[in-house]
Design goal:
With 331 residues, the protein is an alpha/beta fold. The chain has a single domain, classed as TIM Barrel, CATH 3.20.20. The protein is 32% helix and 16% strand. The protein has a twelve-stranded mixed β-sheet with strand order 7-8-9-6-5-4-3-2-1-10-11-12. A hairpin with a 4-residue loop joins strand 10 and strand 11. Helix 1 crosses helix 11 and helix 2 runs parallel beside helix 3. The two termini are 22 Å apart. Keywords: 4Fe-4S, GTP-binding, Iron, Iron-sulfur, Lyase, Metal-binding, Molybdenum cofactor biosynthesis, Nucleotide-binding, S-adenosyl-L-methionine. Monomer and homodimer. It holds the Pfam family Radical_SAM.
Length: 331
């Protein structure tokens, strides 16, 4: 499946819920958000029908996100269903880790291939300040389990924020020195609370410079060495001498990677988003519940994907900007 700019679209991110058991300051208001009604979100059967259509058109990798995906009941059932779809080679999940430790064995049995653990600090007090929830112990237990888990491809995601957690960049990076984990630093994007509350991200150039000072030369690592034929995301990886894992950088603001974008997103209510920052897309829920055949669903998806925007415009406040917050689109 290609868009009009000849980009090969093979990676789907699915937000299964906009609910979360944390309240991270740059992501969600302290009071939380109004929960969508059960009727408004796609059922697992509807999600699987969407994915079957997309897989038939070339989607090979699926990532489950939220909100926090593990707060949705019976998520293991969805993982198992996704793994059974012909053409789907990888099922991954991005999670805050609060519930993962208790559910990991079930998820592995269902076929989960990869986990991204979102963690911005290794300090319990700072964790509470950032997330507004006392869940640090559960996340650390999950992290300990993931450092020795051999069945999963494990990545960690950190958003460095000036004056909040930028003093922990080296400590977080050291996890990849000691364990075969990919530690990724993600540039803060001006979406939702990060935009309205005035948080300031640390430029990736500065992050790289600090890491080079601490660990020496940041030697580039080829994508194939990390993930083989699995569709890749936008991270650029390096590996300092002596590291068992690797360090990754995702800098959507400093260096656009739109020309190689290979993904689309499905929101919890069934909107197929073509770009993180754009309101362009397709209401698959209306098609699914309106009696569309599988052929009609695929045709509508192909028509929508063809019109995927050429690039994001984070720097512009245009009428095409999507007003959804990050917890509503899954990043």
């Amino acid at each position: 499946m290609q868009d009009q700019f000849q980009r090969k679209i093979e990676y789907l991110r699915i937000s299964v819920t906009d609910c979360c058991n944390l309240r991270c300051r740059y992501c969600m208001p302290a009071h939380g958000v109004k929960k969508m009604s059960h009727a408004d979100i796609l059922s697992y059967e509807e999600i699987l029908r969407d994915v079957r259509a997309l897989a038939a058109m070339g989607i090979r990798k699926v990532r489950l996100t939220g909100g926090e995906p593990l707060v949705r009941r019976d998520i293991v059932h969805l993982v198992r269903g996704l793994k059974a779809i012909p053409g789907i080679e990888t099922v991954a999940m991005t999670t805050n880790g609060v519930l993962l430790g208790a559910m990991l064995d079930e998820l592995l049995d269902a076929g989960l291939d990869a986990v991204n653990l979102s963690l911005d600090t290794l300090d319990g007090g700072k964790f509470f300040s950032i997330t507004r929830r006392p869940m640090f112990g559960a996340v650390m237990d999950t992290l300990e389990r993931l450092t020795v888990e051999k069945q999963l491809d494990v990545k960690m995601n950190c958003v460095p924020i000036a004056g909040v957690n930028d003093d922990e960049i080296m400590a977080l990076a050291a996890i990849a020195r000691d364990y075969p984990i990919k530690m990724r630093f993600i540039e803060l994007m001006p979406i939702g609370c990060a935009r309205t509350e005035g948080y300031r991200g640390v430029p990736m150039g500065e992050v790289r410079a600090r890491l080079k000072d601490a660990f020496g030369a940041l030697l580039p690592v080829g994508e194939a060495a990390h993930c083989g034929a699995v569709p890749m995301g936008p991270a650029a990886y390096v590996k300092p001498a002596g590291f068992r894992g690797a360090l990754g950088f995702i800098d959507a603001m400093e260096h656009k990677f739109c020309d190689t974008c290979n993904r689309v997103r499905l929101t919890a209510e069934g909107f197929l988003k073509l770009c993180l920052y754009s309101n362009a897309g397709l209401d698959t829920r209306a098609l699914l519940r309106g009696g569309a055949t599988d052929a009609q669903l695929r045709e509508a998806i192909a028509h929508a994907v063809w019109k995927k925007p050429e690039e994001h415009y984070f720097e512009m406040d245009s009428e095409t900007r999507d007003r959804r917050a990050m917890y509503q689109v899954g990043g």
